[in-house]
Input
Amino acid sequence: MTERAQTPLDILAEEYVAKVVSMNPFFATSMGVPGHDHEVPDYSPAGNAKFHELDRELLDKLDEIDVTDEIDRVTLAAIRERLGLEGELYDAGEHLASLNVIASPLQSMRDIFDLMPTETVENWQNIAARLSKLPQAMAGYIESLRAGAKRGLVPAVRQVKEGIKQAEELAGPNSFFVSFAKKGADSVAANDPTLQQRLAAGAAAAQSAYQELADFLVGELIKQAPEKDGVGKERYQRFSRYFLGDTVDLEETYQWGIEELRRTIAEQTAVAAEIAGPGATVADAVKVLDADEKYILHGVTELKAWMQETSNQAIRELNGTQFDIPEVAQSLECMIAPTQNGGIYYTPPSDDMSRPGRMWWSVPEGVNEFQTWQQRTTVYHEGVPGHHLQCSTAAINRDQLNSWRRNMCWCSGHGEGWALYAEKLMDELGYLKDAADRLGMLFGQRMRAARVVFDIGMHLGLNAPPEWGGKPWDAETGWEFLKENMEKDEEFVRFEFNRYLGWPGQAPAYKIGQRLWEQARARAEAAAVEKGEAFDIKAFHRNALALGSVPLCILRTEL
Output
């Protein structure tokens, strides 16, 4: 592909990214931009206002920019959509009530250390410096939550209670920060007493910061927190638009989610009969599979090796047939995460690809057996053809896309929708011929459909489906509903239950995004038939991924 000349819009976008990197060192670390790993962001109201001012400044400048080509046209539409919604959320004060169990500054100040390089003395010096500055970042965060409370913007009491638990754990004697600092002190800094002291002091500072947060949540915020979990239609519609990059009819989508859930359960029941015999239930099939040694891995060493080989096989066999995977994107590292919450997730490569894409498995304490039938499709979701192919394709497309398009324009509906689409694609391509693996895929699809129903239903106060009483959703009904529709232990379901209630609109973006991806492909297939041409699915995927992550309203028009 011919290198594209940088346009005035690209220059504006690059300048914007450079300013964001300097203002948010955590984002710099996630991109792999050096020079900021020792710094922390400003989470205070003043810091948030600076970001809002930066966004408004860019949006104003867009009115004076001439569109040079088709890539510019997409960039312009995407910036206006993304930053416009950021502005709506800011005006509504959502940044002043940012506290939930998974994606708020409480977690960001801990999770950023998973992405920091740890190979050299300089790396650990940066870590020590950043640890020592967490009290500064935490003070700004507490200031924002306090300002939100003065405006009547307080997270629900359920989220505050869970935040207290997480903060107290990170402040306690078994804190991640203590073990992390000790890792550096015992390895790279083994012969450097000064650095060892700095790491120990940094860990203590981080613990102190989280104790300050816990004290604030217990002493102030929880007393003002509302009992009601649901955010109502107006707020929910705004969140939904943000996570999807598109506007959907929430009531219609809710009904679709119910039908999709029923369809998936019926398909699961049919597959269960293949596994455990005629008349078998899904629970019967699970018992059969969980007792079958060929689907069991023993210990994290076997787990990590299986993840890596499953990922490597997908890359080898899909490259050149379904996708053209650049050599630099053919490396995906499968890792055991330092956390123990049971999640499986992906972190993208650095912008220069020096840090590879990584798939992480967070193994709960005491868990030593793993069922491959449940997770083969997860490897495809997080790896290839899922997130790794998607994110790597964007990262290496430097000749065409500016860094805002490659690294900042993330839309959950697009990204997670693609990953779910990728799971179904692997089934379509024959990678889930084993009924056990297909059942595992269907459990994932069922969980994502249940999210649509639970999330929209709870936050909008809609009536539950008839099989769930037909009355307005409440926490008790929602809890039982999720337990029945997730093949997970109770701790995992509880975390997800709290996640959906505290992060409205995000979880449904997976399944709704998949729906919109499938609709885009169906339209492309229909257009090919109308022209009397054969549908080229490889070209469809190539063109779609070349766009990078874009709001789904733009994906729809472009494909």
